[in-house]
Each structure stands twice: as C-alpha cells, then as structure tokens.
Design a protein that fits this description.
By secondary structure, this protein is of the alpha+beta class. It contains 16 helices and 12 strands. Helices cover about 55% and strands about 15% of the residues.
C-alpha cells in the first residue's frame, strides 16, 4: 500500500509539472474541471511541490522504517542491510522510474484526476505546507529566488515560429504559411515591399487635361496618387477610382472636380516595420501610404494589399508584373532578370536565395558589390548565383542573366 502511494505521489508530481500550460489554459477555459483544478494548483507551484514531497517522503520514510523493523526481527543487522538494498531497488523501479515515465508520456491522464484529490488535500494540509514553504522560501531568498519570480510563461516570437513550423502535421500548408507570414512581418519594413518612387504611377494635374483623362481611364489600379508639377513637393492626395466613377461621367470632369474627390495623402517614414504599419493602416483606416525619408522626400508607395500579400500571398486584382521581370534565356539554363526587380519578390517567385539583408533590388546589390556601373558582359557572383550584366545605362544596370543554383 505504501509503495502504491509513493508511486502515486511521484507520478503525479511529474504529470502536473509536465502539463503544457497553454493546452491546460485552453481546457480550463472550455470548462474542463480537472484542468481548472490543476491550473489553480499550479498557480503556486511551491505549495504544490511542498504538499507532494511531504506526502511522498512521509510514505517513503514510513515504508523504510517498516522494512527495517521487519528485517531486524527476521535476521538481525545483516538482514536490515539486505532489506534496505532490496527496498531501494523496488522503490526506484516501481515508485519512481515507472510512474514518472508514464506521467511524462501521458501527463493529462494522471494530472487531471489527481487534481481532484490534491485540491482538497491542499486545504487540509495547508498549515503544514505553509510551514514547509516558509522555511524553504526563506532559505531560497538568500540566493535571490522568490516564489513569485517563476519562469515567464509568455512565448517569444522565435518560440511561436518553432511551434508553427512543428505544426505541419495538423495545419494545412496554406494556413501554416499565413501564420509564418504574420510572424515574419516584424523582420521587414515598408522599404522591402514599397513601389520605388520612379515606378509610382501617379496623375499630374498640371499636364494636358486630355492626357490626364486618358491616364485615369487606362489605369488598372484602384487608387492613384495625384500631384501637381512635382510628386516630391506637391502631392495633392489619393484618388479612389470607385469614388471617381460614382461621381458621374469622367469626360465631364475638370481638374477642380478631381481635387474635390481626393483623400488626404498619408505619409509614413521609411524603415517602419511591417507589423507596425499594419496596425497603423487599421487605426487610420488608410489603404495607401507614401514612404518618405528624413528629409520628407518621397521614396516609394506602399498599400495595404501589398502588406497583406506578405501574409496570404497574391490575392488582389492589381496587375502583377513580377513574372515579366524574369524570363528564361535562350539556353534554358538561366533567366533574364530586370535589374530593378525587388529581390524578395524574385526570391519568392523563383524560390531563390539571393541575399536580402542589403539593397532591395538586383541593381542595388550589384552596385554595392562592384561600387561602379559595370560594363556589358561583366560577370560576378551574388552569393552562390553567377550573374552576367546584359544591359546598362549611364546610371543603372538594366538587365542581367542569372544562373540559379543547381
């Protein structure tokens, strides 16, 4: 009987301490009574451990004393030594190793039923447990350890990533990628996904009105920045195409009508983390932002759709140009790449691993490495990727040939 009690105390100690705290909290919130009791007990682990060890030691010492008395009566002092050895082996196997192993493998099976016993037992034995903890905690305080200074139960971002990566067997691949996309947002900034300033399609109201109307009618975008004379110095606002259509016939509009339909331009500083920008889009009810540097010059444009695509992948009806930026070459072994293409987009589409921790474009990465505008035909290595310069201008590289890793 004492051996069974010892096994119970040993096993339940391991089971309760091995419980997954997040699974435990989930079950408790869903009304599982055993989980609720276990959660209450684990709120003060020092008291729970004190109770279990008090019971376990009481049982073990009682059993050891009983073995000593019986052995002494049966065979004297030699029998006591033999009995103690045999008893130690039995306790080690049947009251320690076996129950603890079982409890570690199936903690909930043992922990939840045991909580029904420990919870009232804690109230009954509280004076003894309190005294034990008072002495133990006083001694621990000498080393700077307090019962209220337990391990932080919050998961870090890296721990969450690990959990998501290990959930492949229970999560569909698409959902797993979405979760990873959310966790990856903090790694990147608006600079990584913005449309560069030179590629922004915007409406200049200072131009010929016929050209303005032609540009608006031919636009495939739902929102267009509108400026006068200079995009850097005189942004008037953002034109929502749906609002424009609802206003009546486009041909009957005048410049002042366009200005009356504009939303206020929304500016964000370069270097803003994507997770922060997502929150800002939500708070300000904005969908389009102009990225500016420390001098107020516009560096690019970022949209809510661009940001959400980092999580769920391509999903909008906006024209996608990435595929036209990469085409197979005549040999079939390499690819012709537009050097102004965003490296992260190219990596994602082609499953390449060109470095992304520096410049955002192929052109910028090559110029950083060579520190000059190279001549046509120049070859170099970007990480493990052989690159050949195919076309350049006075200020930039136009196209390159990339031979991916094999």
């Amino acid at each position: 009987m004492l051996l069974l009690l010892s096994a119970f105390f040993s096993g339940t100690e391991t089971a309760l301490m091995s419980l997954n705290r997040y699974r435990l909290r989930h079950k408790a919130r869903n009304g599982h009574r055993g989980a609720r009791l276990a959660e209450k007990l684990l709120a003060r682990p020092d008291r729970l451990i004190g109770l279990i060890l008090f019971g376990n030691n009481l049982v073990n010492f009682s059993a050891a004393a009983l073995v000593s008395v019986v052995s002494l009566r049966l065979g004297g002092t030699p029998a006591v030594a033999i009995g103690t050895f045999i008893f130690t082996v039995i306790v080690l196997i049947f009251a320690e190793v076996m129950p603890k192993t079982w409890a570690a493998l199936y903690p909930e099976t043992l922990a939840f039923p045991a909580s029904y016993l420990y919870y009232p037992l804690m109230k009954v034995a509280y004076p003894i447990v309190w005294l034990i903890n008072l002495v133990a905690n006083s001694l621990l305080s000498i080393f700077g350890v307090t019962s209220k200074g337990g391990a932080d139960q919050k998961l870090s971002i890296e721990e969450l990533r690990t959990l998501v990566e290990e959930s492949r067997s229970i999560l569909p691949q698409k959902r797993q990628k979405m979760l990873m996309g959310i966790l990856e947002l903090e790694k990147y900034t608006v600079d990584d996904i913005m449309v560069p300033q030179k590629d922004i399609i915007a409406v200049d109201l200072s131009g010929a009105w016929e050209n303005v109307l032609k540009q608006i009618r031919g636009s495939h975008f739902t929102r267009l920045p509108v400026y006068r004379d200079s995009l850097d110095n005189n942004v008037l606002g953002i034109l929502h195409m749906k609002r424009l259509v609802q206003s009546g016939s486009i041909d009957k509009l005048h410049p002042e009508d366009i200005e009356g339909l504009l939303d206020q331009p929304y500016f964000v500083p370069e270097g803003t983390p994507l997770n922060s920008q997502l929150v800002q889009f939500q708070r300000t009810h904005q969908r389009t932002a102009l990225v500016v540097d420390e001098y107020g010059d516009i560096q690019g444009l970022v949209t809510l759709e661009d940001l959400l695509e980092e999580i769920v992948g391509e999903f909008t009806s906006e024209p996608v140009t990435t595929e036209s930026e990469v085409t197979p070459d005549a040999t079939g072994k390499g690819y012709i790449v537009d050097a102004s293409a965003n490296i992260r987009e190219i990596n994602r589409m082609m499953n390449w691993k060109i470095p992304t921790d520096g410049p955002k474009t192929i052109n910028g990465l090559i110029l950083e490495q060579l520190e000059k505008i190279p001549e046509t035909g120049t070859g170099l290595m970007l990480d493990a990727y052989p690159i050949e310069i195919l076309e350049t201008s006075e200020s930039a590289i136009k196209t390159v040939r990339v031979i991916p890793e094999t």
